[in-house]
Amino acid sequence: MSSRAAHTSRQTGSPHEAGEGRSRPQPKGESSAEQVGHGACERATAPSAVGAAGRAEEPRIVLVTGLGGAGRSTAAAATAVAAARAGARTVLLTDAGHIDGSHIDVPGLTVSRIDGAYAFRARAHAFQARLSSLFDLLGADPLDPEEFTELPGAHSFALLHALGEAASEHADTVDTVVADLPPVPQAITLLALPEQLRRYLARLLPPERQAARALRPVLAQLAGVPMPAQWLYETAARWDGELAAVQGLIESAATTVRLVVEPGPHTAERLRDARTGLALFGHRVECVLANRILPTDSADPFLARLSGCQQQHLKALHDEAAAGTQVHELPHLGHAPHSADDLMGLGVPAPGVVQDGEERRTRAGGVAGRGTRSSAESGSGRRSEQRGDERRTRAGGVAGRDSDREARLRHDRSSAEPVSGRQRHEPPPACGGHLPPQAEGWARRGEPRSGERLAPPPWSVEDRLATEGHLLWRLPLPGATRDALDLVRRGDELVVDVAAFRRIIPLTSALRRCTVSGAALRDGVLQVRFTPDPQQWPEKPREQGPA
User: Fold this and answer.
1) What pLDDT was estimated at residue 172?
2) Which residue of 19, 92, 164, 353 has the smallest Cβ count within 10 Å?
3) 547 vs 535: CA distance, rounded Å
4) If DSSP states are collapsed to H, E and C, what string results for 212-253?
5) Per residue in 174-222, pLDDT tens?
6) Which domain holds residue 520?
7) Average pLDDT score over residue span 290-317
8) 321 or 418, which is more confident?
9) CA gap 44, 16 in Å, rounded
10) Considering only CA atoms, which of 174, 153, 152 is closest in space to residue 163?
């Protein structure tokens, strides 16, 4: 990671709190994160009241995001309280000033405050120390720690570092990690950061260049400029390792997302965009929390009209989230929740309790209400495809568009042609003689920790070579529209743009030896047809007839 995640922690429901601040004063009774080594941060807290026995399985991670102003921090705190009261040793990561462990007295709950400014100063000072020789060469004086000010984006690195620390370094004493994330657009960008930065590091400082270390002095004399020092590659390798660990947590099968919304105008449309962006990166939405629901039996005419309008928007939310995602209604308490009892009164389910089509939601602080609305199937991507209904694309465009409209699928044909030095002569892949195993799908996925299981990639590949002569690549994008979808084949990668979100997806070895012959968006699933390139795809041996 390129900045340090400094945060303060408070262990609630504990007789004392340990730890002391290092370089800044702390409020009385509040502990500080002690920075040790590179990329490590030790949180000093008292033992959990639930128990500190080590365990082998990975902690559950709940990422709480939603629409701006919908009460994400409150919902995250309520989720953490519900998890702790259910017996899980829980850590809440938040930067909200009104969420304080001293007001949430629940055994087994640790409130960890993210301090992006302090994290940036600590990591920037450490990085500057590695550049001391460069400062001496330039005759410049290094900056003092007090001169560093937080740069845009520093908080994102601090949050990612704190997430990795809580789930990895303290895995033996933590069962559930609840992360209070920024609004959906910023949260999606934040969660995609490890994947993107690892790609940049691989392009700018590929590991194979380290093999020429013995030639660096000669190359430096020929070029007239100093070559990158070994510490630069070591730093890049350390950053890549930290990023891979956090990426593995984000892509873990034990990681889910909770969306917090407040029913109102255009909320359903914004929820649809959020689901599309999350699906693009493979994030699994556990449930939707509809916050600040007004009572429907008020005798006041004004409140009755306000509640009626809210119920209409709430119905639209249920209709939009009908594809296997539950909607839990959180009542308006009439005041801002502060204590643990207030947070429990919201009726937020504990992580892991949500089950599609089985759990009944609660209304008005836990009173059983109507059943949870959910679809019979958990996604349109599982619907069977009817081959006869597929429309031919125009210029490789997305099927189903009007013929007079420009296709949004742009295929870089020059990059699809064999390139000198990159042409592959691989044997036919396994799996039916044509399709490689899906596990091969992505070489730059996160690295799972011991006992951790990565969720499968959101995309899949179907072998249709024998029947239709192509491979069909699928990516579920619920709520996506053709107008907001853009697709580009760039060499060995597929660039997918949906609304304001972009993801660059490396292709498998089989798909890299194919050309894009068309694409379609059907039932919320992006389908791309890959046709084998005869110059790169080995021919199957012809069957010999009887002599």
Assistant:
1) 86
2) 353
3) 31
4) HHHHHHHHHHHHCCCCCCHHHHHHHHHHHHHHHHHHHHHCEC
5) 999 999 999 999 999 999 999 999 999 988 887 766 655 555 555 555 5
6) 386-532
7) 94
8) 321
9) 11
10) 174
**pLDDT at position 354, please?**
56
Let me know how long the chain is: 547
How many Å apart are CA 62 and CA 286, to the nearest integer? 9
Give the type of residue at 102.
S
Whether 122 is covered by a domain: the verdict is: no
Q: With 80 as the cut, is the pLDDT of residue 81 above it?
A: yes
Q: Where residue 465 sits, what CATH number does that domain have?
A: 2.60.40.790
CB 95 within 8 A of CB 331: no
pLDDT above 50 (res 456): yes
What's at 335, amino acid-wise?
A: H
Identify whether 343 is part of a domain. Answer: no
Find all residues with CB under 8 Å of 312, minimum gap 6, and list them. none
Give me the pLDDT at residue 50, please: 38
Residue 59 covered by a domain: no
CA 429 to chain centre: 31
Q: What is the mean pLDDT of residues 58-70?
A: 94
Structural domain count, the chain = 1
What would the DSSP string read from start to end of 487-532?
A: EEEETTEEEEEETTEEEEEEPPHHHHTEEEEEEEEETTEEEEEEEE
Q: pTM of the prediction?
A: 0.72
Q: Which residues, listed in sequence order, are joined to residue 177 by a DSSP beta bridge?
A: 61, 91
* Of 276, 96, 69, nearest in space to 178 by CA: 96
Of 246, 240, 162, 164, whose CA–CA distance to 197 is shortest?
240
